[in-house]
Amino acid sequence: MKNPFTPAEKVQKKLKVLLFGPSGSGKTLAALSFPRPAVIDSEGGTDLYAGREGIPPFQVLRAKSITELENAVKFIKYDNGKTFETLIIDPITVFYDVLKQGTERQAKNQQMGFREWAKINSRMKYLYNELTNLPVHVVVLARESIEYATKNGSLERTGVKPDADKALVYIFDFVIQMTPDHRGIVKKSRGIDLGKNGTLETVDWSTFQPIAEPYIEGDTITSESEDTAADRDATDLGNRDVAEGFARTWKDQGLSANDIMTALGVAKLSDWTAGLDAANVAVETYLLPVVDEPTKSEKKPASPKQSKSRYPTSKDNITEFKQSEPPTGTEG
Q1: Is residue 212, in this structure, part of any structural domain at all?
Q2: 101 in a domain, yes or no?
Q3: 247, 272, 287 — which closes off a domain?
Q4: How many Å apart are CA 214 and CA 209, to the nearest integer?
Q5: Which of 1, 34, 221, 332 has the fewest C-beta atoms lying within 10 Å of its C-beta?
Q6: For the whole model, what pTM was predicted?
Q7: Can you give the residue range of the structural domain that contains 251?
Q8: How many domains does the structure of the chain reveal?
């Protein structure tokens, strides 16, 4: 059997950072210190920072719906690091709340059931996978909420957590809880010890730049979404259940195992890598009657057809970020 593993090599890595904390804890200020930022601002958190001394220029998109957020992420992916080096979402809490409200309004009798929550979780998982694969640093901000646990039959406060989907923390390399004095408590750090005894006196780009620099070069690794992996597994003839169902379908129509293997051109079903649909097409083609090749005079030229993709191009639904400007009536 062929060894499916390969030697580990250095990869190109962009940092994924989650900052959460109460209002006024310095989340937005810390995020704006990252290089060449594009900010998706859902609650005006950047309004007082544009043009201020010590704040680098940034571009902003004011948005609240998950669809606007998804379109902006598509642009960042399409731009491929040419315009921006960092994407900031400020805060993710608003987008999650708006998604829940919209789903509830679409639900029967506006009651949230398992189906509605499954839709929300699926859409958030898709977003998280897209953020993971972006070719830029990603800094996501979240409000802080109280965490409870049941003890002796009653709810007791056990701490604080990001006010967002509970799966959010798993995609990040670093999760930092911001405090009112602008310090950071390290809740998660992949492979690197941050701060002193888990505390950062300062939270800004200078904290993360030494971590990011060694990963500027290397192969880019793309993470497959769970939905895509599930779809692929459901049509993979290497999956025993799928292979047995495929073989049973064609054997019921009178084909032998040898006929099926001959049609696919493989020694065993697990060697077929093009998926279930392509396998069915291969067998159907194998069963077509052999037709004599028409003579040259009998051949008719095919009429040209203009093909048009049913999928949007990478430039469709592109979101534009606007250069941030100080709000009227505020001092630099």
Answers
A1: yes
A2: yes
A3: 287
A4: 9
A5: 1
A6: 0.75
A7: 227-287
A8: 2
